[in-house]
């Protein structure tokens, strides 16, 4: 049985992004979205105009949680060969209700991909707006980076995680202040 990672969250979180379960690369590194081709960190870098990938992981996590983002997975543990969500078996859910109770400023929950979104009924019952975002996984090649960025930008803006300059630049597909 594989064990997931602890939640990244501070009480002032305004948006909770839920993945399904960490990949083999993420578990080996002990890091969320640790596969080098996963687009999670590049998307956040583009949204906030800060190259998060250049930071050590601990600093990166502290930076995003201070900005109001919480990150966790819908599954606490599971059986799985490889990293594909389709191979997840015997999954045990994380206690999302307990986490949300500890986040009094939370404005929204977003599912990162289809497997995570299978828990929509659970998250919708928590009484907050819930969104389904395109997966940042390298397996989701049907969406371009720019298309994913636009979908993620809309949810981050809804949750109040973008400043007004970044929201004004939303049509450009590039980080604020970048040519």
Give a structural overview:
Residues 6-156 form the Uracil-DNA glycosylase-like domain. Pfam families: UDG. InterPro entries: Hypoxan-DNA_Glyclase, Uracil-DNA_glycosylase-like, Uracil-DNA_glycosylase-like_sf. It comes from Roseateles flavus. The chain has helices at residues 24-29, 40-48, 57-66, 96-101, 114-117, 120-124, 145-158, 164-168; strands spanning 2-3, 15-19, 69-73, 75-79, 89-93, 108-112, 130-133. The protein has 179 residues and is α/β, with parallel strands linked by helices. It is globular and about 40 Å long.
Strand content: 15-25%
Overall number of strands: 7
What is the N-to-C order of secondary-structure elements (H for helix, E for strand)?
A: EEHHHEEEHEHHEHH
Strand order of the largest sheet: 3-2-6-7
Biggest sheet statistics: 4 strands, parallel
* Radius of gyration using CA atoms only: 15 Å
Can you tell me the residue ranges where pLDDT is under 50 for at least 5 consecutive residues? 165-179
> What's the CATH H-level homologous superfamily?
Uracil-DNA glycosylase-like domain
User: What is the rounded distance between the termini?
Assistant: 47 Å
Gross CATH architecture? 3-Layer(aba) Sandwich
Which whole number gives the mean pLDDT?
A: 91
CATH topology: Uracil-DNA Glycosylase, subunit E
Shape: globular
Please bin the fraction of helical residues: 25-40%
CATH class equals: Alpha Beta
- Structurally, how many domains make up the residues? 1
- Structural class by helix and strand composition: alpha/beta
In DSSP terms (H or I, runs of 4 or more residues), the helix count works out at: 8
């Amino acid at each position: 049985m594989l064990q997931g990672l602890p939640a990244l969250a501070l009480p002032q979180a305004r948006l909770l992004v839920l993945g399904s379960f960490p990949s083999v690369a993420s578990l080996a590194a002990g890091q969320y979205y640790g596969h080098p081709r996963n687009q999670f960190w590049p998307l956040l870098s583009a949204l906030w105009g800060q190259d998060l990938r250049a930071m050590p992981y601990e600093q990166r996590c502290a930076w995003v949680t201070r900005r109001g983002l919480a990150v966790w997975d819908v599954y606490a543990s599971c059986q799985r060969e490889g990293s594909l969500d389709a191979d997840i078996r015997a999954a045990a859910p994380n206690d999302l209700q307990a986490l949300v109770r500890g986040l009094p400023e939370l404005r929204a929950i977003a599912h990162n991909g289809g497997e995570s979104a299978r828990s929509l009924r659970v998250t919708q019952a928590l009484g907050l707006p819930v969104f389904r975002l395109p997966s940042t996984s390298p397996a989701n090649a049907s969406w371009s980076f720019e298309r994913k960025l636009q979908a993620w930008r809309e949810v981050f803006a809804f949750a109040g995680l973008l400043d007004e300059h970044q929201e004004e630049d939303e049509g450009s597909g590039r980080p604020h202040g970048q040519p």
